[in-house]
Design a protein that fits this description.
Layout lengths: L5 E3 L2 E3 L3 E3 L8 H9 L4 E2 L19 E6 L2 E7 L8 H13 L6 E5 L4 H13 L5 E5 L13 H4 L2 H14 L4 E5 L7 H9 L4 E4 L3 E3 L3 E2 L4 E2 L5 E4 L4 H12 L6 E4 L5 H9 L4 E4 L1 H6 L3 H16 L18 H5 L4 E5 L5 H5 L4 H5 L5 E3 L3 E3 L9 H5 L5 E5 L5
Parallel strand pairs: 3-4, 3-16, 7-8, 8-9, 9-10, 10-15, 15-16
Antiparallel strand pairs: 1-2, 5-6, 6-14, 11-14, 12-13, 17-20, 18-19
C-alpha cells in the first residue's frame, strides 16, 4: 500500500480523513486550510439554511466538558453557515477549491425536499464540489419545521430528501444521519433505497452543557450538540449496526482523538472518517498527527488496501443473548505484577468487586468461587495484574 488513498462513493481521495462540517470550515479560506493541512476532503459548514436558522448566537456558544483537567467532550450551539448561498457561489467556493481541494458540499435539508434539490443544483453548477452530504442531523433546531435531527429520525423524510437531491444533481449524494435516535438502521436503509451513494454517521448528540451551581444558571442557555472523545462509543454503535444493514459506504464521524480511532472505525465498516472537535482543540496540524500514525500502521501491518481491514470486526459483534451462552470466566491474578502482593500497596480492585471475590487480609486474596466474571477488576487494575480466564473444568 504505497499511499493512504481510498475510493469513496466513486471519488478518489488521497487519504480517508475528512474535515467535518463545522467551525474549522466556516468559510472558503478555512476550508482550504484544512485541505492544505492534509485532509483527504473537506466539508464546509452546511449551505443554505432556512432564513430563521441562518445565524448563531454570538454571546458564547461552546462549553468544554472535563473530567478533572482532562477534556472529554464539548457542547456547542453552533448552527449552519452564516453566509448566504450566493456568498459561497460568488467567492467562498473558489477560495475553498484552491489547490484542488476535494469539497463535499453539506446542504441543509429544507422542509420541502424540492428546495434542498434546488440548492444542490445551484451548487453543482459552480463546478467546485465533488459530492453532496445532506444534513438532517443538526441537534439544535427543534420546532414545527422539523429541520435537523427531527427530520433525521423520520425514514420517509430521509428517503424524500435523498430522492430529491439525486434527481437534481449528477454528483454522488450522501446523507448525514443523527445519533440522537435509538435505532439509525431504518433511516439508513430508507436513504439507501432512495439512491444514496454514502452515509455519514454522524453528527453531535443533542445535549445540555450543565449548570453553574454558584448561580444556578445553565452553562449554555440552549440545548446543543455534544462532541469529542466521550461520544465515540455511541457513534461506533451506530456505525457497526448500520454497516451490517446496508451496502453503501459509510463516513464515520465522532470522537476521533488519535489515529487508532480511525483504524477502529474502518474495522467496524467505515470507508472514510471525519474529524472536527480534535481539530478545534489542536488546530489543522492535527491531520498530520493522524496521517503519521496511519502511515506507520499501514507499513507495519503491510496493508495493500484499506479493504483488508474494513469491516474486520463486524462478524465478532453478537447479540447479548448469544454472548450470555458462552463459557463463563473468572478473574486470575499474576502475583508478580500485583502491586499489593509485591509491595503491599494498592487496593483498587477490592473497591470495585461487588461479588466478594476480592479481599485483603492483609494482602490480596482472590475467592474465585465468588467471582461473577464481570471483568471490572481487570479494567481497574493499574498494573494489569488481573485477567479473565475460563473456569477450569472439573475432572
Amino acid at each position: 500500500m504505497k499511499t493512504l488513498e481510498v475510493s469513496f462513493a466513486g471519488v478518489q481521495l488521497r487519504n480517508p480523513l475528512i474535515l467535518a462540517s463545522a467551525t474549522p470550515s466556516w468559510d472558503g479560506l478555512r476550508s482550504n486550510l484544512g485541505w492544505k493541512a492534509g485532509a483527504g476532503a473537506v466539508v464546509p459548514k452546511s449551505f443554505a439554511p432556512p432564513r430563521k436558522w441562518a445565524s448563531h448566537p454570538r454571546c458564547g456558544r461552546m462549553r468544554l466538558i472535563k473530567h478533572g483537567n482532562q477534556r472529554i467532550g464539548m457542547v456547542n450551539i453552533e448552527l449552519y453557515t452564516t453566509m448566504t448561498l450566493q456568498d459561497w457561489l460568488d467567492r467562498e467556493l473558489e477560495k475553498a477549491y484552491e489547490g484542488g481541494n476535494v469539497i463535499i458540499a453539506s446542504i441543509v435539508a429544507h422542509p420541502d425536499p424540492a428546495d434542498t434539490g434546488k440548492n444542490a443544483r445551484l451548487i453543482e453548477a459552480a463546478g467546485k464540489v465533488a459530492m453532496f452530504e445532506i444534513n438532517v442531523s443538526c441537534p439544535m433546531p427543534a420546532d414545527s419545521d422539523r429541520v435537523g435531527f427531527q427530520m433525521g429520525n423520520d425514514p420517509e423524510m430521509c428517503f424524500r430528501q435523498v430522492e430529491a437531491v439525486k434527481k437534481a444533481v449528477t454528483l454522488p449524494v450522501g446523507i448525514k444521519l443523527t445519533p440522537t435516535t435509538h435505532n439509525m438502521v431504518p433511516m439508513a436503509q430508507a436513504s439507501e433505497k432512495a439512491g444514496a451513494d454514502f452515509l455519514t454517521i454522524s453528527n453531535s448528540v443533542r445535549s445540555f452543557a450543565g449548570v453553574d451551581i454558584r448561580t444556578g444558571l445553565p452553562r449554555l442557555a440552549a440545548y446543543g450538540g455534544y462532541s469529542g472523545p466521550a461520544i465515540k462509543p455511541i457513534i461506533q454503535r451506530h456505525v457497526s449496526e448500520v454497516a451490517k444493514a446496508v451496502r453503501i459506504p459509510i463516513s464515520a464521524c465522532g470522537g476521533v482523538s488519535r489515529w487508532e480511532d480511525v483504524i477502529e472505525y474502518i474495522m467496524i465498516g467505515a470507508t472514510t472518517v471525519q474529524i472536527c472537535t480534535s481539530v478545534m482543540w489542536h488546530g489543522y496540524g492535527f491531520f498530520q498527527t493522524l496521517l503519521k500514525g496511519l502511515s506507520e500502521y499501514v507499513e507495519r501491518e503491510r496493508l495493500n488496501s484499506w479493504d483488508e481491514i474494513r469491516g474486520k470486526t463486524l462478524p465478532y459483534i453478537v447479540p447479548i443473548d448469544e454472548l450470555s451462552k458462552r463459557p463463563p470466566m473468572v478473574a486470575e491474578v499474576d502475583p508478580q505484577k500485583c502491586l499489593n502482593l509485591t509491595r503491599g500497596t494498592c487496593e483498587a480492585c477490592g473497591k470495585v468487586c461487588f461479588y466478594g471475590a476480592i479481599r485483603f487480609a492483609p494482602r490480596f486474596q482472590l475467592a474465585r468461587e465468588n467471582c461473577d466474571g464481570c471483568g471490572l477488576c481487570t479494567e481497574i487494575c493499574p498494573a494489569e495484574a488481573l485477567t479473565l480466564v475460563p473456569i477450569p473444568s472439573t475432572p
